[in-house]
């Protein structure tokens, strides 16, 4: 699969590494130039330096060719914009957004994001499981 | 029979220079205005005669929007300094609360164009400035530039 990873830092790095080991074609968008170079050198990914919520950067990253776009910014609103522009303007096949505010899971799905991963919910489930 | 214009309920999220100016303008037109901002000191931008409501809160949170009366609002303007937040808030208002008149301030021209295609009403200060400047410089009937 052609997969675009937009934003994030260490989580993006390990995601890129694992997905490359599984033979996917990975493109990464990140605002830090040094991080872009590191990823390209270490994990054989295509790196585009810029902000993933910028339509021009998404275009440069060939988002129109992507099977999957994963938005990993630490700001929920940015991930919404990345997924919406990727899907609605560039017709990317599938979008995944990481969200921190559990209330955004339903909202983002309503607005067309295919899948929302909420770390908060995940942790709460584990924590509540511990107290049983 | 004389028609009376109904006072509209207007919510402005973000009390920066544009948000404050819009809130002041709406109030001058006799609308019911509520301004939401995360930072109380932002309200200093409202005129001294501002008689609308202010609310300290996060405009991306339904709790804050509902405190501001979003269920009864006619107009919502998202004018924070963050384009992505404005886009998100305007969609919460339009999609979730079915508000008919929603406007998002989007500073980035490319983002504004992307969302024009998605039928989100946006206003881009930079684009408006360019249009005005073009009119001023190149459309003058007095002399060809």
Description:
The complex is a heterodimer of chains A (132) and B (145). Chain A has 132 residues and is of the alpha/beta class. Chain A is 48% helix and 22% strand. Chain A has helices spanning 10-21, 33-43, 55-60, 76-89, 103-110, 119-130; strands spanning 2-6, 25-30, 46-49, 68-71, 94-99, 115-118. A 6-stranded parallel beta sheet of chain A has the order 3-2-1-4-5-6, sandwiched between helices. The radius of gyration of chain A is 15 Å and the shape is globular. Chain A starts with a strand and ends with a helix. The mean pLDDT of chain A is 95. Chain B is an alpha/beta fold. Helix content of chain B is 37%, strand content 18%. Chain B is built from 5 helices and 6 strands, in the order βαββαβαβαβα. Chain B has a 6-stranded parallel beta sheet with strand order 3-2-1-4-5-6, with helices on both faces. In chain B, β4, α3 (83-96) and β5 form a beta-alpha-beta unit. Chain B is globular and about 50 Å long. The mean pLDDT of chain B is 91. Chain A binds chain B through residues 53-56, 75-78, 80-81, 84-85, 88-89, 101, 103, 107, 110-111, and chain B through 60-62, 82-85, 87-88, 91-92, 95-96, 108, 110-111, 113-114, 117-118.
